[in-house]
Design brief:
The chain contains 22 helices and 16 strands. With 681 residues, the chain is α/β, with parallel strands linked by helices. Among the domains are: 136 residues, no CATH class; 225 residues, no CATH class. Strand 9 and strand 10 form a beta hairpin.
């Protein structure tokens, strides 16, 4: 007799598999439930903002609001749906939702995770104290250091010596680009390019600032206060490792500027061709007249000479308009001067390579030529007189540089004579984002056409508006905006002292207030181009620009620190990154060497770096008893200082495929992207 099949329910029970947390189904609040009381009386802003989260969209509490975790570099970490928090970033204390099994947190459940290690009984007790007017202290004020129920790693075990905080290896990991600082059309484009190219948000964000500066620079300036006027061009450098898709981002950002150039050239070509033809004809007439003078009789020579000179003057008076340009690439300093002169003082170099630094250093002349760059940033007058060429004068030059470079280029340019001493490096706004190479989503969706079209329309409109201005227009700040910028200036000034945290980069930081004013003017143009951009810049715009400036400070600290790092320090940071990524509490010398064979071909080359890390307090060599058995002694073991881990690495959540459409409404709003630092400073 054939046995009957096993019931499906019994078969499911016998399969050893994790049981997923069911999605929260919102129901009417129970007046006797302390969990419902907490959920109804507290907002998501009350929970997440103290833990360092920032609002990406919405007011933070309403459905559709988007949140971003402080350790994330993707545009969005979680969304609010049906009053619950759906999390997509693995760098949070919360479980990550999946498209096939969406799971959201209520505010009470989130409170339990953030402040009570997920212990809902303890959270309920604390909530009752809140309800009765006695607020319980948080068990974890940072909100995510203990998110797994484990004992705090910084607490020593009874038989281990206490760990002291290690000596910093340099500047801390810089923060991600601030969320929602651009006008909507620009913000949507930046986020879409970041997701389509799977690049950190900093890369398209910084390049779009350079694109705005290219379109507006030379025609718009901003008065910070009486006697202090800043142009609106920028120098921007973003450092990314090889294979980071820098070129794809630069192409997307500069596409409307190149389209504008083509259309402007098509429009100008008839006039250019007409003027060139008339000038050629006039030049031929001059040559003919000169030939007649040479053959003329002495009595006729004076009158014929006068006629030839008149023809020459007429020929010189015919000006051939230059082809309209916004962008240049691979141009020598001398060529940049001519381009600036031809384009009425405005030109931009937006490139995915660092060739411009070779030009500055003198690729062909072997002599650094920094004058056009220094004056082109500051707006100082440029006068050039060279033998055999017509003199060139640019009254108010506005040169914009938007460069993406490999990190090694930064160290190279720091060694060029005069780059730091003459103030060139201090003129750049730097971004040094984490790399996500090796953890990118495969097959990411392209930028939606509606977003690309809107970006192109607005950027080309800005370029057209500014190029038609005969004289530069000076924007002003409202009274409140002036006060906001003055407060920022007041907060920066003490930090520039020799004992301040910005004292060693005071040359850079001293220009930050002016840079914030330039950024405020560009954001003002981007937001109000069609609604009255000649109005004073508002305090809200200045506050957003200050937020961007504050983001730039730790990135500049990281860049200048990287420029002076020696090989041993760089190797030490690589090892710390490896420890962090693999979440090690200990390791052997053999394990470390196997993981870094390309960096240390011989194991003996690793020892000085490990000794340096031990001196700084990041690791500690574990004392072991001498084995009495024969054979090779065991590889030394090192314990890891839990206070020295720079950032928590998480297991890869991104499966590399796009979620099925419709499986989770929240998942469509924010695709998971696992960021991990693959190279160190």
């Amino acid at each position: 007799m054939k046995p009957s099949p096993m019931p499906v329910l019994l078969a499911e029970l016998l399969v050893d598999r994790p049981v997923p947390r069911p999605p929260y189904v919102k129901s009417a609040p129970d007046p006797d439930s302390i969990a419902d009381w907490y959920t109804e009386t507290h907002g998501w802003t009350d929970l997440l903002i103290p833990a360092g989260w920032s609002i990406r969209a919405g007011n933070g509490d309403e459905d559709g609001s988007k949140w971003r975790h402080p350790a994330a570099t993707s545009a969005c970490s979680a969304t609010i749906r049906h009053g619950c928090l759906f999390v997509y970033s693995p760098k949070t204390p919360f479980e990550v939702t999946a498209p096939s099994k969406p799971a959201g947190y209520t505010r009470f459940h989130a409170y339990a995770v953030l402040h009570h290690d997920g212990d809902e009984s303890a959270a309920a007790g604390a909530a009752r104290q809140m309800k009765n007017g006695n607020r319980a202290p948080r068990t974890d004020p940072n909100g995510w250091a203990k998110a797994g129920g484990n004992q705090d790693a910084s607490e020593p075990t009874p038989d281990a010596a206490p760990w002291e905080p290690p000596v910093p290896l340099g500047a801390p990991t810089p923060p991600p680009f601030p969320a929602a600082v651009f006008p909507r059309w620009l913000d949507e484009f930046v986020v879409a390019v970041s997701e389509a190219t799977q690049t950190p948000l900093e890369l398209p964000a910084m390049m779009t600032l350079a694109a705005l500066a290219t379109a507006a620079g030379g025609r718009i300036q901003v008065e910070v206060r009486r006697g202090w006027v800043e142009p609106t061009n920028l120098f921007i450098a973003t450092a990314m490792p090889p294979g980071s898709r820098k070129s794809a981002v630069v192409r997307a950002v500069t596409a409307p500027l190149e389209d504008w150039e083509r259309r402007a050239l098509d429009h100008a070509m008839p006039e250019i061709a007409d003027a060139a033809t008339r000038k050629r004809i006039a030049a031929d007439l001059v040559r003919q007249a000169e030939a007649i003078v040479a053959k003329a009789k002495p009595d006729d020579r004076e009158s014929l000479t006068a006629e030839a000179m008149a023809l020459g003057a007429d020929a010189d008076a015919i000006e051939v308009p230059p082809a309209p340009r916004l962008l240049a690439d691979d141009a020598t300093p001398e060529a940049l001067v001519s381009l600036l002169a031809d384009q009425r003082g405005r030109i931009g170099v937006l490139s995915a390579e660092g060739d411009v630094f070779d030009m500055m250093a003198g690729r062909y002349s072997k002599v650094p030529s920094l004058g056009v760059y220094l004056k082109g940033h500051a707006g100082d007058s440029i006068r050039v007189d060279r033998k055999g060429r017509s003199p060139e004068h640019i009254e108010r030059p506005a040169l914009t540089l938007g460069i993406t470079v490999q990190p090694d280029v930064l160290r190279t340019i720091a060694g060029h004579p005069g780059f730091r001493g003459r103030g060139l490096l201090a003129r750049f706004l730097y971004a040094f984002p984490d790399s996500n190479v090796g953890h990118r989503q495969v097959g990411a969706a392209p930028v939606p056409k509606t977003i690309t079209d809107r970006y192109s329309t607005e950027m080309e409109a800005l370029a057209t508006t500014c190029v038609e201005l005969v004289e530069p227009v000076t924007l002003t700040l409202s009274a409140d905006a002036q006060d906001a910028l003055l407060r920022f200036e007041g907060s920066i000034e003490p930090r520039l002292a020799s004992h301040g945290d910005l004292g060693h980069i005071a040359d850079w930081a001293a220009k930050l207030v002016g840079a914030a004013a330039r950024i405020a003017a560009l954001l003002h143009l981007a937001e109000r181009l069609r609604t009255g951009w000649v109005q004073p810049i508002t305090v809200n715009t200045v506050e957003v620009a200050v937020k961007v400036a504050e983001f730039l400070i730790p990135h500049a600290l990281t860049v200048f620190d990287f420029m002076r790092v020696d090989d041993n320090m760089a190797a030490a940071r690589r090892i710390i990154t490896w420890i962090d990524r693999t979440e090690r509490e200990s390791f052997t010398r053999r394990e470390c060497h196997q993981a870094h064979r390309t960096l240390f071909p011989k194991v003996g080359e690793l020892d000085p770096v490990l000794e340096h890390l031990e001196e700084l307090g990041y690791i500690r060599r574990q004392e072991t008893s001498v084995s009495e058995t024969k054979g090779r002694p065991p590889s030394p073991t090192y314990l890891v200082n839990p206070n020295g881990v720079t950032q928590k690495s998480q297991k890869t959540h991104n499966s590399g495929s796009r979620p099925d459409e419709g499986t989770s409404e929240a998942f469509e709003d924010c695709e998971t992207q696992n960021e991990e630092r693959k190279w160190d400073l």
